[in-house]
Design goal:
Elements lengths: L2 E5 L3 H6 L9 E5 L20 E3 L1 E7 L15 E9 L1 E2 H9 L5 H4 L5 E3 L3 E2 L10 E6 L2 E7 L7 H8 L10 E3 L7 E2 L5 E6 L2 E7 L2
């Protein structure tokens, strides 16, 4: 199982980090060891003083596919989820300045929170899904899949040009604006279309 992540897929998030709008999806990968075990708290790692939360809609691939035509992409997944892409922002900034890969800042242990999976048939329109993240009871991020630069099927098609997709692979589709630093004792909760799909305690 691999975790394929998309960066800079929401204009408001691109602007808040003063990044350049990409011509193509920005793709990076987290190892399977990045998955935070269910019911486990997230412990802030010693190598960073600035871990940021990033809430994202997730897609679980259900069969093998390569060079997938966008019009057939919908046949490659049945489940939608919500999760967190924890990012060591200080380390990422340092790596970006040196032109180095982001993996240490994005793929560290526990950096991928994967919530409950929901049958996509549960939703009327996958291109109009509202999602949010609350921190200690206050909403800090809100997004809608209709605001993505590249939609779900477009991402599946694009990613499959470079990586063969296999059953169980997960695509993180990008985060909207509102990312911020976590602190010990924070309590994070992610909601998709009004349903809570994950909670995480920060230690």
């Amino acid at each position: 199982m691999k975790i394929i992540c998309i960066g800079r897929n929401y204009v408001d998030h691109i602007e808040e980090l003063a990044n350049e709008k990409p011509k193509d999806p920005v793709v990076f990968i987290k190892p399977d060891s990045a998955v935070l075990p269910k019911e486990q708290d997230f412990y802030i790692p010693e190598f960073s003083n600035e871990i940021h939360y990033e809430v994202e809609v997730l897609i679980k691939i259900k069969k093998v596919g390569k060079h997938i035509n966008e019009k057939f992409a919908h046949t490659y997944y049945d489940e939608i989820g919500l999760g967190l892409d924890f990012t060591a922002r200080d380390l990422q900034s340092e790596l970006k300045e040196k032109g180095l890969p982001w993996e240490k800042a994005k793929g560290f242990d526990g950096s991928a929170v994967i919530g409950k999976w929901v049958d996509k048939k549960h939703y009327k329109d996958l291109n109009n899904l509202n999602f949010s993240l609350t921190r200690n009871g206050n909403i800090v991020q809100q997004g809608n899949t209709g605001l993505m630069l590249w939609g779900i099927d477009s991402l599946i098609s694009y990613v499959s040009k470079f990586f063969m997709l296999k059953k169980g692979d997960i695509i993180f589709t990008g985060t909207p604006a509102g990312v911020g630093k976590i602190s010990p004792n924070d309590y994070l909760s992610g909601t998709l279309e009004g349903e809570e799909l994950f909670t995480v305690k920060i230690k």
